[in-house]
């Protein structure tokens, strides 16, 4: 097409030039009026490009000549520049090209429209950036002042010194802890940012953040060593309030003698910037590992999709146990697997959907209902297919044949929520249920789910209060040595009687405690109570061991072992009287922290049992390599033993054989009938527990029951 | 007449454009209008009968939205690294820009300009913080595009050198 025509039509405003000799150029077609302002007229239809007329263009000729000489690519642009023409600023770009036939061209284009657009986008983007810098600067300032005060005078912070006052009322959140953990100081802003209720403590929240950011011990130790701080942003989901973007600075206070005395945490909310930024430049927001859009881009896309007002599904996919893969095979392998997951997701979703990586092992899909796979509301079927695709073995350069488990949560727009925030929240909830509640690990949002979660939240709150107010009580269930017919042990079980008189079963509240982290204060309470009981038993000559259950969270919490040790010491308990029970799933999911904990417990002399044995997936290798003493056979296997030669009997016999070869004791759980009892005796099972002997009872009832049992013939 | 190419480099919003405007036109504006691409201004400086023509290349701030283009440093006789003393982060970024520019043009003189001295510096900014970098630069100026403080000095320095 004729360039002059395009120009007349106003499609492009450009000059097409062909190099003549030196800096002389022939003009093709009509010249735009501005050409003679940036180039000197020479002869008819010729111009000179000079330093005087346009130094920028003259400079670009050096690169253009390389293009025309075939030294570089066949195409190069100069980049935008501004020329002052009379009273007006005009904006241009230039391109040097070479056609396949070898003709050289210089195209100078007036890019006013593109300039204006770019200018307005970057104007706001940069204003946001500068504001953000201000926050970072503020962090730097607070950090430096505090470091100075903490390093020079450790007492000053405790006095109502001026700095205390200043920091207390800052809009920026500040938390200071001692190097070994305990909170020293926090201001109102930190509490507001991190805690929903006054009772939650900021240090726990901060530890949650560090975990989320993967700032492990190794990294923080390194900060101390290098005396530097860590700075970054995170999208923080506090259980109770809406998620926020935070700017976080983590700084160790290390004095001249290299003594690490404190940690300083500085926090600001930057959600507003983040939203602006995402809205301005969504196209730059991809995740470098998978090349998928990241969380920002995803939220922008979600809002755009909502704006179209046509139905769609939002789906979250969570890769389970990813930490385990990283631990077992290394981060490189983990990264490869994530890349492979991303590829499978992209393929499965096809063109009518959008895939993003929104957290380290979490992906989001936006699925248009027009997508055939989800038409007619077949989203659940789609999710199942997706799940089975993702469960196929993965072969990468570092690992072969690895399989993954995934959980999927779904919500539908507009039925389940209208706004982006609510959609994300509800999808989170569905995913949460998929993770913790459902066997098939796929869950679609429903109002019932929401009601359920609200009830759960209430339960969580009242459990929190129950732990604090001592509404919980320890019950004990005896365990009998079958050969000696003696009570040798008992299991400590928590009973919770709600203020309104209702009993709440551990099967209900323990999972809530585990999911919310309340298991830690609960676990500590139980450890204390049991040590108190053992102290009392010593005085009453009740010679039994008491077993407590320890959950996965407690196992991975470094403080658990310290808590056990300190309770044992403060109540002067013989560690051999204490026994710890872990379920198989804890073993499988946190193998490394478990084995570390077990070694320490064993060193103390504490007896270790594996609970609910047979229901999980523990392989022989786990049992061989862990320091354990006992297996507790799950009651589901005991139920039918002794009735006839059924499968369960065979399993129990196998477990007994296995235990013998590994030199482990066996306790049968849930023994209710004389037949079961006889079967266990006939097959040399060591111990048994169940209603046949006694239900769980109060501590006082237990000690008198114990004495009666001991004195019976 | 001698002609010298001078590049104005640095992070966003530090006052690159304002310094040129103050020097060339004697104008200062409080309003921030971010630069896109390159703008070249010329100014002749005279001293002891000799005249130098400065070609002042004012460039877009280097940040996450605009990368560094080494081509622009070709043939430069000096480059300014401009930072903003009210923004600590701009110093950190300025040093990064310096390293890129140095690599692109090992011969040009590098001059550090700490701008906005009419405003209070961020409290944690102390001049001593610049010390480790100072020997990388032919000179350091503390300027204000607003009041004009040291603005002529910095440009005359790149036009004629120390004397
Ligand atoms: N008070 C004060 N403000 C200044 C000074 N220099 C620049 N400013 C202000 O700082 C803002 C940015 O100035 P510019 O000159 O546009 O900065 P720039 O470095 O060219 O910015 P970009 O082109 O976006 O990279 C404007 O609002 C100016 O008014 C100064 O010396 N003092
Ligand atoms: Mg500018």
From TrEMBL, chain A:
Coiled-coil spans in chain: none
Species classification: Bacteria, Pseudomonadati, Pseudomonadota, Gammaproteobacteria, Alteromonadales
The protein, known as: Diguanylate cyclase (GGDEF) domain-containing protein
InterPro entries: Biofilm_reg_signaling, EAL_dom, EAL_sf, GGDEF_dom, Nucleotide_cyclase, PAS-like_dom_sf, Rev_trsase/Diguanyl_cyclase
Residue span, EAL domain: 456-710
UniProt-listed PANTHER family: BIOFILM ARCHITECTURE MAINTENANCE PROTEIN MBAA (PTHR44757:SF2), DIGUANYLATE CYCLASE DGCP (PTHR44757)
Domain GGDEF: 310-447
PROSITE patterns for the chain: EAL, GGDEF
CDD domains membership: EAL, GGDEF
Lineage top rank: taxon: Bacteria
From TrEMBL, chain B:
Entry annotated with the keyword Nucleotide-binding: yes
GO MF terms held by the record: GTP binding; GTPase activity
Keyword Nucleotide-binding: yes
SUPFAM superfamilies in the cross-refs: P-loop containing nucleoside triphosphate hydrolases
Family matches, as InterPro entries: P-loop_NTPase (IPR027417), Small_GTP-bd (IPR005225), Small_GTPase (IPR001806)
This protein's UniProt keywords: Nucleotide-binding
Alphabetical list of NCBIfam families matching this protein: small_GTP (TIGR00231)
Entry protein name: Small GTP-binding protein domain-containing protein
Organism: Marisediminitalea aggregata
